[in-house]
Amino acid sequence: MRNPPQPLPENLWGEQWRFASLRSSDLVESIANRTIPIVEMPEALYPINLGIASTVQIPGVVIDGGRRSMQLARWLKANQPVSLDAIAGAPDGLILNAGEVDRWIVATFEDPEVRSAAQLFEQRKKESDRLHFLLVEPDDSGMTYTGFWLLRSPGLK
Q1: CB-CB contact of 138 with 73 (8 Å)
Q2: How confident is the model at residue 157 (pLDDT cuts 50, 70, 90)?
Q3: C or N: which end of the chain has fewer Cβ atoms within 10 Å?
Q4: Residue 132 and residue 121: Cα distance in Å, rounded?
Q5: pTM of the prediction?
Q6: Which residue in 151, 78, 152, 104 sits closest to 5, CA to CA?
């Protein structure tokens, strides 16, 4: 049984976050060809090893951590991310499941556009056999990444 979600510690909040996706065929190569200080990408979760078609969009969440980028990435590594869930509510939320029982509130939102993006994120998780990613970067330039986690929600296919 997982614990109720707790707010992410304030000292770790990034500057902004967004939903994103990468084509299955590009996922491993685009990360493997970069120098990223913290990478958790088990081979068992490579899309090809899960039988995911190369055209499937793998959903993810990108956090622009700013100056706290490395601090956030180290905290995430220590807490062992398992999966992310976009949940409907009042407000809607993005929940990080970590370790055996911990749950963290990454963000809450009420914006209709973000809600639509959250629904697309969850739909793509279904299409990708629950595979998704979490990327932490210092800013949205796309030049450097701080941490990357390839995640898969528990559950039956």
Answers
A1: no
A2: very low
A3: N
A4: 9
A5: 0.94
A6: 104
Residue 113 DSSP code: H
The verdict on residue 1 lying in a domain is no
Total tally of structural domains belonging to the chain: 1
The answer to the question of residue 46 being in a domain is: yes
Judge whether 5 lies within some domain. no
* DSSP secondary structure string for all residues of 56-75: PEEEEEEEE-GGGHHHHHHH
Torsional class of 115: left (φ above 0), alpha (ψ -120 to 50), beta (otherwise): alpha
Please give the C-alpha separations between residue 37 and each of 12, 47, 73, 87, 148, in angstroms, as whole numbers: 17, 22, 9, 30, 9
- Tell me the pLDDT tens digit for each residue of 102-147: 999 999 999 999 999 999 999 999 999 999 999 999 988 878 899 9
- Which range of residues forms the domain containing residue 26? 11-84+122-152
Q: What tokens appear for 79 in the block?
A: 């807490």
